[in-house]
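Tip: read the tokens left to right.
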């Protein structure tokens, strides 16, 4: 997660709506037009089912309060507008309360193809479809509850489980590799790369995931494939802090990516 941002949070008014501009709405419209064909072809059924349930607007930025109304009806979750950057502790705390933190700003045109920090398009289009599914919602809450109990030093370990599943998880459907995570749904280049057969693919394993370092500013060199989604949902019942302790004792795997140039 970047430590600074050039973006400023947009605050909702008294009715709970953020006053997006006509240009903000145009950016959302163009992002939707660009991304929808890709997700229809490459994303997994649970994500696509959730996208249909939400029925997001295609011509303007979705409002957090309207998405919250649909999420609350489906799984009891809500969307909580937050600044661009929040610490892991607050992130886990919100998930534990069935609240998804969503940065309220939308990217500028110069960041149209890639933005390092999450914006409202990534948060709503990428994340909220899976939160309409009680099984994915329960898994996200379990990670939040574990993180809320964890020592601060364990946060960077635990977040890898979220990163390689809810953000960048893959699964198979009818013999084809499909995207599952939000980081894939909201990025055409990452979704194409992840399902191309070129990156390294590993089977879903909680301890292996917790030991795998990542960078947020590159296409991932490694993805984890959840062949049976029941394995992911079962992880919600694990003692995730004991898993973190085991992973820490074993140590991190050597990174598969080059060091970041300052």
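Filled-in amino acids:
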């Amino acid at each position: 997660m970047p430590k600074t941002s050039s973006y400023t949070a947009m605050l909702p008014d008294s009715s709970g709506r953020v006053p997006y501009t006509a240009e903000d709405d145009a950016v959302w419209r163009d992002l939707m037009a660009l991304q929808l064909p890709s997700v229809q072809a490459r994303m997994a059924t649970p994500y696509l089912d959730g996208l249909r349930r939400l029925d997001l607007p295609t011509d303007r930025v979705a409002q957090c309060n309207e998405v919250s109304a649909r999420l609350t009806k489906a799984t009891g979750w809500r969307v909580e507008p937050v600044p661009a950057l929040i610490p892991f502790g607050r992130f886990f705390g919100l998930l534990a309360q069935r609240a998804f933190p969503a940065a309220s700003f939308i990217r500028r045109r110069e960041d149209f193809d890639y933005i390092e920090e999450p914006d409202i398009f990534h948060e709503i289009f990428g994340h909220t479809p899976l939160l309409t599914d009680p099984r994915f919602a329960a898994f996200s809450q379990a990670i939040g509850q574990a993180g809320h109990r964890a020592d601060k030093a364990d946060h960077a370990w635990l977040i890898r489980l979220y990163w390689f599943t809810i953000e960048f998880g893959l699964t198979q459907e009818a013999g084809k590799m499909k995207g599952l995570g939000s980081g894939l749904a909201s990025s055409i280049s990452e979704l194409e790369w992840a399902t191309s057969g070129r990156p390294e693919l590993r089977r879903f394993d909680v301890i292996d995931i917790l030991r795998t370092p990542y960078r947020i500013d590159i296409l991932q060199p490694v993805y984890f494939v959840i062949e049976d989604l029941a394995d992911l949902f079962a992880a919600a019942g694990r003692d995730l802090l004991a898993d973190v302790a085991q992973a820490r004792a074993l140590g991190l795997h050597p990174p598969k990516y080059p060091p970041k140039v300052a």
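Residues 22-250 form a domain with the Phenylalanine Hydroxylase fold (CATH 1.10.800.10). The beta strands are 78-82, 99-103, 170-173, 176-179, 200-203, 222-225.
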